Amino acid sequence: MFYVPIYRRRLIETFNTVQTNNPKPEITAVDLHCTRRPKVKLKLEFSRRCFVISTSLILLGVCMSPFFGLLRRTLSTMSQQGSYSVAFVTINKMEEAKKLAAGLVKEKHAACVNIIPGLISVYEWEGKINEDPELLLKIKTATSKVDDVIKYVRENHPYDVAEVISVKIDNGNPPYLKWIDEVVGTKA
């Protein structure tokens, strides 16, 4: 006869007893769990594992501390992403472009406005396709000031429907972004 461990023999006996409608014998957790190691050794091995894991985590924390500082700095600059925007406005005359740019900077709605000449705009207006020379204003500002830029342009632009669109700046030279904050009056 082949060797059958005690817990398997008890399970087989229990199964046979249930099939013959005899009363069920009591099965304890000790009967179902068989181990070849004494329980004291298991506790000692568990304690060693806990010690090794906790020591490893402490050493990992000490070794990684320079990287935690880098991570903190990276996350703090990530909060600045999207805090700055560039707005674009088209206009037809250089004098009006200069007047609009100066007003935006004077009113602290923008830190800087670039006037870019030489655009040709092709668009539909009142059912006709038009092609006109225009200038582009590139307006650098804080995202919190974009609504002020839009309002100012709508009030001072010669067109009935002024083009004002903005995009958020994902990344940039930190001193330049700080300068934008200082000029437009947002927190640094």
Automatic annotation (TrEMBL):
Q: Which InterPro entries match?
A: Ion_tolerance_CutA, N-reg_PII-like_a/b, N-reg_PII/ATP_PRibTrfase_C
Q: Which GO terms describe its biological process?
A: response to metal ion
What are the protein's UniProt keywords?
A: Membrane, Transmembrane, Transmembrane helix
List each coiled-coil range.
none
Classification via Pfam families: CutA1 (PF03091)
Mind telling me which residue stretches traverse the membrane in this protein?
50-71
Q: Which GO terms describe its molecular function?
A: copper ion binding
Q: Member of which family?
A: Belongs to the CutA family.
The molecule here is called CutA-like protein
Task: Provide the species name.
Answer: Magallana gigas
